[in-house]
Amino acid sequence: xxxxxxxxxxxxxxxxxxxxxxxxxxxxxxxxxxxxxxxxxxxxxxxxxxxxxxxxxxxxxxxxxxxxxxxxxxxxxxxxxxxxxxxxxxxxxxxxxxxxxxxxxxxxxxxxxxxxxxxxxxxxxxxxxxxxxxxxxxxxxxxxxxxxxxxxxxxxxxxxxxxxxxxxxxxxxxxxxxxxxxxxxxxxxxxxxxxxxxxxxxxxxxxxxxxxxxxxxxxxxxxxxxxxxxxxxxxxxxxxxxxxxxxxxxxxxxxxxxxxxxxxxxxxxxxxxxxxxxxxxxxxxxxxxxxxxxxxxxxxxxxxxxxxxxxxxxxxxx
Length: 318
Ligand SMILES: C[S@@+](CC[C@H](N)C(=O)[O-])C[C@H]1O[C@@H](n2cnc3c(N)ncnc32)[C@H](O)[C@@H]1O
What we know:
binds S-adenosylmethionine; VC0802-like; 9 helices; Rossmann fold; seven-stranded mixed beta sheet; alpha/beta; 2 domains
């Protein structure tokens, strides 16, 4: 346990929030919180306790708003508090806690289960989240924001059809209903090789233009409604694709180049719906993200399946 944990938690204010950082991106979350001038009350590699927030930070996997610190005198009292909650609980281990392990043996819990891919996912269980940092108080969030406990978005993967694991990013976007595609939609998938995104899209829309300098894997190139072109995605003409309703890009390029590409398509085509991966070489460029957020109807998400990259989604009308 962090040596300064005890005194800090004693001072925990009545209102505080808990954030679970994405694994290996704790520094990005800290940077983001500093930029937004959010007070960090306590942090370790697994959990941040912060002053109340208005929205989920980009680099947090899960956000527990309005956390209650509930003191208890002994194990039985702690159990009574946990059993007295309305729903089943999801326990998150922020430290190694023998007391939590012992409490959990007597609780009916909401266990983490791999997600069955479905668009949109119908998983709709009410639950509360809790953790234990000290042996005399529980930290409970009665209403966590994530559809899936802990923001844990592991799918039951398809190990045979897609050519790589990039498809999991689009599975997440679709299953969590960040966008809704219609059967009559037409998509262009830029930087599509070896074909994971095109494969996912081919099941959701009428037609997928799939553009990459590199080829698609045979199991994807054979799909009827995928029209592959070996081309530089930065030099194709929007007028050659007048029917597209969605633009997807997973091209490996700088955020600056991607922004130019997006601006170009907004000027020279009627497409207003976008899902694009913004990839970073080093640290997250928060100033750059603001430029993407300026487009009306935009949001930026760090998907569970994103690594050092984020996903810009625009559902625009103009
Ligand atoms: C991360 S991979 C895309 C993976 C793909 N989304 C999938 O699901 O299989 C990035 C791709 O961007 C492509 N790429 C990079 N620069 C490009 C360019 N100028 N034009 C077209 N494709 C490009 C690369 O060839 C590579 O296949």
